[in-house]
Amino acid sequence: MKILYFAWLKAKTGTAEEEVSPPAAIATIADLVEWLKGRSPGHADALSDLRLIRVAVNQDHVGLDHPVGPNDEVAFFPPVTGGGR
Amino acid sequence: MIRVQAEDFDPGAELAGFAAGNHKVGGICMFLGLVRDFLGAVPDGAPPVTAMTLEHYPGMTEKQLAAIEAQARARWPLEEVLIIHRFGRLEAGDRIVLVAAASAHREAAFEACHFLIDWLKTKAPFWKLEHAEGGDLWVEAKESDDLAAERWAKKT
C-alpha cells in the first residue's frame, strides 16, 4: 500500500511517500489512520486530529469509513486551498 | 481541456485560441484568479506575505479537474471548457488560475464558469504555503469556499 502525505502532514510525518504493509485487520481508512499513528511520534502528531485531515484513495476523495486494500494509493492532506482568492 | 503547469500563461491568447473555429459558440465567460496581497489573516504588526508556493498532488489534480469539467459539461450545453491551474512559487499579482466556458448562449457560459471555479476550490488538491518575512504558514481552507460549492450541489 502506497501512502502519500501533503502540505503540513508531509512536514510532520517527515515523509512525502512510504510503502506500508498493514495487517489484514486494517480494513478502512479509520483503521489505517490508527495503525499509521504507531509508525513514529511525527505520524501520531500529524494524524492526531481527524477534523483537520482529508483523505483520497486512488486519487478520489473518500470518507473515513472507505475500505482500503494492499494495492491502494492512499493520500492524507489538509482541506484544499486552490484557485484565486 | 485541463492544464496544470508551473509556467505563466497569456489570458488574451488563451481566450482567443480555445474556442477559435467553433462557430457554435455564441459566448465565452472567463474567470482569472490572481495572487492577492495579504493572502492570509496577517495579525497586526506581523510581517506581510511576500510570496507563496502552491503544492499539488500530481495525477489527482488532473483527475479531479477532468471530473469537474465532466460535471460542468453534464449540466450545461458547453462547446468548450478550459481550466489552467499553476503550481510552484508565485508572488502577489501573479496569475494562478484560469477557467473559461464557451456555449451557444451567455447564460450557460456564465453559470458553468462560476460552477467550475467554485468546485475547483474545494475539490482540486492544491495547498498554499505563504512565505512571510517571519516564516512560512500553510493557508487554511475557508468555510465560505465550502458554502460556495455547496450552493451548486443543492441546485441539482
UniProtKB/TrEMBL annotation, chain A:
The keyword Protein transport does not apply. It comes from the Bacteria. GO terms for cellular component: molybdopterin adenylyltransferase complex. CDD domains: Ubl_MoaD. Belongs to the MoaD family. Keywords: Nucleotide-binding. This is Molybdopterin synthase sulfur carrier subunit. GO terms for biological process: Mo-molybdopterin cofactor biosynthetic process. GO terms for molecular function: nucleotide binding. NCBIfam families: moaD (TIGR01682).
Automatic annotation (TrEMBL), chain B:
It holds the Pfam family MoaE. Its EC number is 2.8.1.12. Heterotetramer of 2 MoaD subunits and 2 MoaE subunits. Also stable as homodimer. The enzyme changes between these two forms during catalysis. Keywords: Molybdenum cofactor biosynthesis. GO terms for biological process: Mo-molybdopterin cofactor biosynthetic process. Pathway: Cofactor biosynthesis; molybdopterin biosynthesis. It comes from Magnetospirillum moscoviense. It catalyses: 2 [molybdopterin-synthase sulfur-carrier protein]-C-terminal-Gly-aminoethanethioate + cyclic pyranopterin phosphate + H2O = molybdopterin + 2 [molybdopterin-synthase sulfur-carrier protein]-C-terminal Gly-Gly + 2 H(+). Converts molybdopterin precursor Z into molybdopterin. This requires the incorporation of two sulfur atoms into precursor Z to generate a dithiolene group. The sulfur is provided by MoaD. This is Molybdopterin synthase catalytic subunit. GO terms for molecular function: molybdopterin synthase activity. Belongs to the MoaE family. The keyword S-adenosyl-L-methionine does not apply. The lineage of its organism: Bacteria, Pseudomonadati, Pseudomonadota, Alphaproteobacteria, Rhodospirillales. Coiled coil: none annotated.
